[in-house]
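Kindly inspect the following:
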Amino acid sequence: MMEFCLNLRKPHAMGIVSAVLVLGLLNFCLAEWQTPSVVEPIEYQAIKCRKHSAALTDFGGIGDGKTMNTAAFISAIEHLRQFADDGGAELIVPPGNWLTGSFNLTSHFTLYVHKDAVILGAQDESVYPLIEVLPSYGVGRDGGGRYASLIFGTNLTDVVITGGNGTLNGQGQYWWEKFRAKKYNDTRPYLIEIMYSDHVEISNLTLIDSPSWNVHPVYSSNVLVHDLTILAPIDSPNTDGINPDSCRKVRIEDCFIVSGDDCIAVKSGWDQYGYNFGMPTQDLIIRRLTCISPDSATIALGSEMSGGIKNVWAEDITAINTQSGIRIKTGIGRGGYVKDIYVRRMTMKTMKYVFWMTGNYGSHPDPGWDPNALPVIKNINYRDMVAENVTYTARLDGIPNDPFTGICISNVTIGLTEKPKDLQWNCTNVAGATSQVIPKSCDLLAPSNVVFNCSFPHPPHWHVKRKTCTNKGCRKVEL
């Protein structure tokens, strides 16, 4: 008995159809045709299309929300791995509720989640293997080791995770309750983590209730993240939306995030592990982000920034009922740097802070941190912003004997709440200048009598040509 996916877009497919019809004429029973694994054409855009295609049901997957499908995912991806050098392969997750533990992706591969499909993260620690801690952190971010993410990949080239706005549901409540009760010695799994990889696309999905961070590209380059909807309760612990970490050439575009933590948190390692590993996040572009996070930042830079963060562009950002706009988080012992940051065209409604810089972030991975490792924060540029219903315009706290310098803010109008703080600009150990800013800034960011715009150089143009990929449907056939 042999099973395979018949893909009618392949040249050899018609030959197979003809053979089946001939067998029918010879009175062989054609009742072996199964219910189609994919019953409708699928069309999507991606950085790469694939020559080979299969559905999860071809490998024993059962989408009833109860049956564990980890083995089906692993078997499917292992089988499709063989096509990496022959045009690559896609695995289609068809309509249904697909309960699974952690599984690993492969290179030259697309995971496509149908619009009516839900990948459900199992509420069972045993199906998330413990993996090595990140060398730039030295320890799991929650402490101890760390569980593998629901969808995981390392040392990959050309991988796409996409869908017709299909859903990844981490079923995080189980994990949040145990975390709050301090029942974990290891770090909770993320929904998606891609490590040491190049040419990665994550798009057109809805991510719900991650146990911890949602999307974590780390030690990777040429990463495109777009058209994601990320949702978690606003009191859920550490449910950051997208966290590029020690990555180069990343674009994040057209995402909507509701989170219990930072909507986007840019990172590069933690204290001595981060600056010794020495891999910065650089050349990052963030566009058309909408964020709701009452207790955290729209975009955070840090606090784990010890490998350095530089060359970040953010534009056309909307924040609603969010604690702060752009927040820089660092502290003594971090080392590293945050520099050459450019933000413009930001709209904020109902905010605690618009501008927030924190130089006393105190968490450390272990007692081995160096109190002489001071971060460098410089050339920070904000322009063309409007905010309303704001409690506190700016809290900017540098580090004694290590001021944050080169801060530029221009063309910003901030409307205050009915009961604003009396001190709207609280500035210590910072230096810079402002132009056309309302309310008037603090003396350390000297208001200029000359109108100027803060710098926003053209971001690098990375030509990413996305292709239209079509799967005309495949049927599972038994011979």
In short: Residues 13-25 form the longest helix (13 residues).
